[in-house]
């Protein structure tokens, strides 16, 4: 499956095509979830970079995230464009409105509501064991102590879903990792996020359009 690389030249990366009609439920629908904690207190935290990426994605599409009964903010989109300018795959993008360690409930509810299979679930989350700004893609595996992933795996009954891992780096000195992830990005890191977040959106698109292996070959080579 191919998609329109030329549209990446937009400075606003507006290659996410919103749809006015509801996304049809069914096995062809993707669910892309960004993890974080709700409310302004946590909005700038490192732990919220997954949620930030989904907000970036929705902003690129010009489609606001709206409250969903699954205890999430969600939007229905087409992801990119296919060869010949046809709309890309159907997707629901969402941010759970629960705390991180309860992310599984909203994700499970969204999957049931939109009839999404685990194979078409993409979770975007922060990763301590990856340098800040680097991206890594994988399917399944352990949760690495990440409470959001642990909650999702337990709620949907499998670890076999796609992850877009956004590096936030290790805490300095002897700082407790639990404290580190709940601190805001530094001023320098916030400047870099202007590049990291669009790159994360791009990584999500590549996974959906080209499959995991092809996406890894591009994203991991950066």
UniProtKB/TrEMBL annotation:
Alphabetical UniProt keywords: Cytoplasm, Hydrolase, RNA-binding, tRNA-binding
UniProt xrefs under InterPro entries: Pept_tRNA_hydro, Pept_tRNA_hydro_CS, Pept_tRNA_hydro_sf
Site keyed Discriminates between blocked and unblocked aminoacyl-tRNA: positions: 37
Enzyme nomenclature, EC number: 3.1.1.29
Compartment(s): Cytoplasm
Annotated GO CC locations: cytoplasm
GO biological process: protein quality control for misfolded or incompletely synthesized proteins; rescue of stalled ribosome
Reactions that this protein is recorded to catalyse: an N-acyl-L-alpha-aminoacyl-tRNA + H2O = an N-acyl-L-amino acid + a tRNA + H(+)
Superkingdom of the source species: Bacteria
Site positions per UniProt: Stabilizes the basic form of H active site to accept a proton: 126
Coiled coil residues, start to end: none
Class of the enzyme per the UniProt entry, highest EC level: hydrolase
Active-site residue numbers: 47
PROSITE patterns found in the cross-reference section: PEPT_TRNA_HYDROL_1 (PS01195), PEPT_TRNA_HYDROL_2 (PS01196)
Classification via SUPFAM superfamilies: Peptidyl-tRNA hydrolase-like
Gene Ontology molecular functions: peptidyl-tRNA hydrolase activity; tRNA binding
Binding site for tRNA: 42, 99, 101, 147
Major localisation: cytoplasm
Quaternary structure and partners: Monomer.
Entry similarity comment: Belongs to the PTH family.
Function: Hydrolyzes ribosome-free peptidyl-tRNAs (with 1 or more amino acids incorporated), which drop off the ribosome during protein synthesis, or as a result of ribosome stalling. Catalyzes the release of premature peptidyl moieties from peptidyl-tRNA molecules trapped in stalled 50S ribosomal subunits, and thus maintains levels of free tRNAs and 50S ribosomes.
Protein name: Peptidyl-tRNA hydrolase
